[in-house]
Amino acid sequence: MERSARWDRITSTPLHIAALAFLAAYAIPILWPGLRNPGFEWVILVVWVLFAIDYLARVVLAENRLRYVRTHLIDLAAIALPMLRPLRLLRVVTILSILNRRASVNLRGRVAAYLVGATTLLGFCAALAALDAERYAPDATITTFADAAWWTLTTMTTVGYGDCYPVTATGRWIGAGLMIGGIAILGTVTATIASWLVEHISEGSEVERLRAEIAELRRNRE
């Protein structure tokens, strides 16, 4: 456990920088197709290698290696799957897990910031992936980033107006992932609010109990 914590401290900042580099290298060629350059592919490859090294190091440092692999299957999938463009969205899961390492240090104080960051990151990357898959498809309704962002928002919130929708298989898989992710995030928000309410209600009940005990002690003294 101590070795894993030390590895976290050493790699936290470099992995955050690598995650930002991946987002930039992934987003720029999609948002501005005229800027496509092999250099972006190299950045994505280097970041993938760094994430793979980080995952392998965590497996080696884990007290129970088999259990670590079983409980981090999504991270393993994000690393092990081929470097295909439609599958690059899976690497967002790895980025989210990196953000979650900091959030878990003080979950109560940072859960709101983590949820906002995770939702924004997931929505942004899903919009990019949808635009990349749909832009040049026949009869496409998602042809600009604004279309993709609007579709992502309506899908994650389960509103689904139907004015923008994917027509490719890749786009539909992205939509399915967004629906599941939106429900999961909504459930997390609901659970967090419920936990906060229960905690404050419990604190209020404890205060009332203490007041009653103090009043009882005063009556006994009189």
UniProtKB/TrEMBL annotation:
Classification via InterPro entries: K_chnl_dom, VG_K_chnl, Volt_channel_dom_sf
Keyword Methyltransferase (UniProt): no
Any GO MF annotation of the entry: voltage-gated potassium channel activity
Pfam families for the chain: Ion_trans_2 (PF07885)
Domain annotation Potassium channel: ranges: 141-198
Gene Ontology annotations of biological process type: action potential
Compartments (UniProt record): Membrane
Membrane topology: Multi-pass membrane protein
One of the record's GO cellular component terms: voltage-gated potassium channel complex
Chief location category: membrane
Transmembrane segments: 12-30, 42-61, 111-130, 142-161, 173-198
UniProt entry keywords in alphabetical sequence: Ion channel, Ion transport, Membrane, Transmembrane, Transmembrane helix, Transport
Protein name per its UniProtKB record: Ion transporter
Gene source species: Enemella evansiae
